[in-house]
Amino acid sequence: MIIKNVVCPFCGSLCDDLTVEVEGNEIKNVDNTCKLGYNKIVGYSHGRIEAPLIRDKEGLKEISYDKAIDEAAKILCNARRPLMYGWSSTTCEAIEKGIELAIKIGSLIDQTATVCHGPTTLGIQEEGKPSCTLGEVKNRADLVIYWGCNPFHAHPRHMGRYSTFTKGYFTNKGRKDRKIIVVDVRESDTSKVADIFLKIEPGSDYKIINALTSIIIGNGDILPEEIGGISKDRLEYIAGEMVNANFGIVFFGLGVTMTGVKDKNIGSLSRLVKELNRNTKFSLMPMRGHYNVSGAGNVFTWLTGFPYAIDLSRGYAYYNPGETTANDVLARKEVDAILVVASDPVAHFVNPSIRRLAEIPLIAIEPYTSATTELADLIIPVAISGIEADGTAYRMDEIPIRVKKFIDSKFKSDLEILTDIINRIDRYE
Amino acid sequence: MKKKRVKLITGRTIEQGMFIEHKTSKEYFDATATCFMNERLIKELDIEDYVKVNTDIASIVLRAEREKGIPKDLIFIPMGPWANFILNIDIGLSGMPSFKGVDATIEPTDDRPLELKDLIGLYKG
Amino acid sequence: MNELIIKNGIVFDPLNNIKDEKKDICIRDGKIVDDVKNPKILDVNGLLVFPGGVDGHSHIAGAKVNSGRLIRPEDGRRSLKPKTSITMPSSGYSVKNVFSEGYDYSIMGYTTVVEPAMPPLSAIHTHEELRDIPMLDKLSLTLFGFNWFVMGYVSRGEIDKLAAYVAWMLKRTRGYGIKIVNPGGGENWKWGKNVDSLDDQVIHFGVTPREILNDLMKVNEILDLPHPIHVHTNKLGQPGNYNITVDTMKLASGFETQRGREPLHITHVMFSSYGGENWKTFDSKADEIAREVNSNKFITVDVGQLMFGDTTTMTADGYLEFNLQKLTGFKWSNSDTELETGGGVTPVIYSPTVPVNVIQWAIGLEAALLINDPYQVWLTTDHPNGAPLTRYPEIISLLMSKEKREKEILQVNNAVNKRAILPSLDREYEWNEIAIITRAAQANSYQLRDKGHLGIGADADVTIFDIKPNEIDPSKDYDKVEKAFSAAKYTIKGGEIVVKDGQIVKVVSGKTYWTNAEFDEYYELIEDDLKDWFANYYTVNLDNYGVNDVYLTNPCMIRTNPTIGSRVRLA
């Protein structure tokens, strides 16, 4: 059976034009996909955890699903300071259920933006987010800037589908109608296709962004001759390109959110875009990593009022990044149990946080052996959303698309497992 | 032994992404237990195949790989358990640890990178 | 059988011409009935009884609202309330979380609310939030005002295709009716520009706001849609815009409809009733607007009242938000949506010491007081643009009491005496008129036959306020009025008591209405265009576009009778 217009459950580009060939209950082939999506979809059955596992002195041992739900409920109910973490690679429906559970048990809850575009959130909470959908870029953009991101590697079809090579209504010559600028600290496959590559000193983003803003508002005379490894002349040239574009966009990645003054970088980038809009049309867009990290932020926000790093122990949502963010509460050794859903924090958190993860009961709802399952005390295998379970996901430009289920799984979905845990806790109460 | 101060950045690569769901595979190990460096830096330190990267919190051994586009005072490690082993929590207000632009020193080594299981084992006990 | 009788209330039910009448109301299985056998008795001895409130224009769900929540954690931190044994945690003052939206409306006696700006491409998002809002029945209006298909069909005069497209889109987005924001101008904003009159051209598309409005009004009628075209005028929020507002209203003049309702609704008219040439010469033209409304029975308006304080503005009119941000310097978000629509969000602080804000405040009240027929003017704040929804009780007390207004006028900048006429207006709203502008008029305009009244067969949505209309004088006891409207004695939703003494006592999930205006072969008419444009210009596949019923709580489809040439509706 050929299934068309399948939505790829890998990165924030959320391409929805994949063709999947399914025979029996097996995937035979996938077309229209990048290597990342291909490997995830074709390799979906590889290395799966086959049954619920619990850790004792000898190691992991199989238990029944019912017992696993029981253990999970017990761990969460007995914890005084639980944390629920992950969420960016599952459906909005599961995330909603997760928040319901967090509210019920008075948990901390955080999502992967905390080690990704968390600073973007803080920056736009300061300055706002002048943005647009990817189709606006496709149809209009004549200047595209990739700042601190490398879509060739992280979002392989982004440039082809949305932002560089694609043809659109007012850009019917595609690449020829667009000027491409890449800003990075090193050459990358993305910088190789740029018209202009600004190789800047590490950590100098803030200076350079503000220098561009100064030039654009007419205060360029206060600038030194060189900023962050770039000459003032060159920055004036770049500012001119920005002002003279008809429709410009800055895509930015973790090269901006993770370096230097982090959230302040994003605030200043937003201010730059705001100033540009006095002269022309300009937008910015974070290159979101996981396919539904944008959805996680959205669901968190409409249900609790805040996008991540939420402490529900008081009965209401307390939000204070830097205090309630996952790495902070772990490194402070506050957290005494953790539930991980659709994420691998042991692979992606920093050393002091992982040390805490090794000390406390860790429940992982996870399809594969991962760094996190190496430390987990309880592992509940799960159907893979976007392949074995359907639901809603949000693209990096906050457009919701329903991901499909095209394989039957013997495992329950994140949504079902979380529902079972909630019901089990209800039974205890 | 020669030592040198560098800035460490971590980030995605396509290979890291391709095998992210296969964390125990050789491909994932090859993709992420690796340090990308400028050729001149490798020569300067007489690094052969492996490099030890030290930060304020820990040290790790990685396979050294040449990369042309990277500046001489920078090293790049794909995001993942190996890179993060040497990253510290950042006392700041954003809740975001520093994954890029971290101060590090590097030196040649004859040791080999740890397998995932052994690496994670270091966190226990 | 679930029966309830509300005894001895003083009932105002304008749509059934019941006014100030001591009357029992019988309820069975969620509906108003003529008698009951073994009911639970609720003796409300002399208290004020209204149909459940209907808010015809309130931004409660979707991308813009969430963007407001996202950029304003400082607003989220206001009004934090912990969960209770039955309710979920609340957050937010002007941009509330979904739970708080439902609870706050219900506590004030509202039972039905319309989200008036759904971007088609993110319609799933709108419906996900609507699904999660408890306590209320919900509707949403789909945005069409600068959509490329619409402008293409208008420019080529293809009215049949335009009708087919609107019908298709309402079905795909589960929308209730046609919303038009800054017709044509929104497309120009995608190049950083706007339109200045009804006859300005949209860049590249060669159509004018006048043509877009006229053709969508025709299509609204062809498709027999229950609600008028719902229009946010061009130049909204700009000094001197009252002219274009009056011009827009005149488009509807003489346009008779089969349903006997107005063909055109002008929304949050306060923001469209500005005089002056700039902010320095800014003044109220509410009198000019009211004159047009009073002589033009083909339109309705809603107030969009502004109240002093901090709020969040949000609209599909991105140009407006950008310009507002230029005045305030506050944070600003923009969200242009491919081929369809746009939007913006920015916070604002309306101050009683700022002349412009004071005049804006006066304009809304003036419009409400100068428009004679209360069925032509609904009470809204354009939540949260003019003020958060929780400010309704205060506005009701202002409309009912000249004394209260005089007291307020003393507190605000003197511009109110020079560049507005509010101080000279003596009218005071009566209970019955309040029931119209908060319930009956809106139910009527949306043709929600089971809403906004207490006749036999209506949904048993009833509000009982803790005030005795025959014992107080709202003109003098305005504080009591405000208090009573802030917290209902009882809110009854679908026959169940959901609020008692201003507290949520039961959490329920409401219905979601949408309009199905399909007609024979409507899809074939536009299929090639859809396939072509989706393949070439959209970034989402046609197959993956739109919403289905899994996102709707208790979906209620309203079927219409389109008449298009010889076509008839599908059986």
Automatic annotation (TrEMBL), chain C:
Amidohydrolase domain sequence ranges: 41-499
- Annotated Gene Ontology MF terms? hydrolase activity, acting on carbon-nitrogen (but not peptide) bonds
Classification via SUPFAM superfamilies: Composite domain of metallo-dependent hydrolases, Metallo-dependent hydrolases
> One Pfam family name from the record?
Amidohydro_3
Family annotation (InterPro entries): Amidohydro_3, Formylmethanofuran_DH_asu, Metal-dep_hydrolase_composite, Metal_Hydrolase, Metallo-dep_Hydrolases_sf
What is the name listed in the Swiss-Prot or TrEMBL entry for this protein?
A: Formylmethanofuran dehydrogenase subunit A
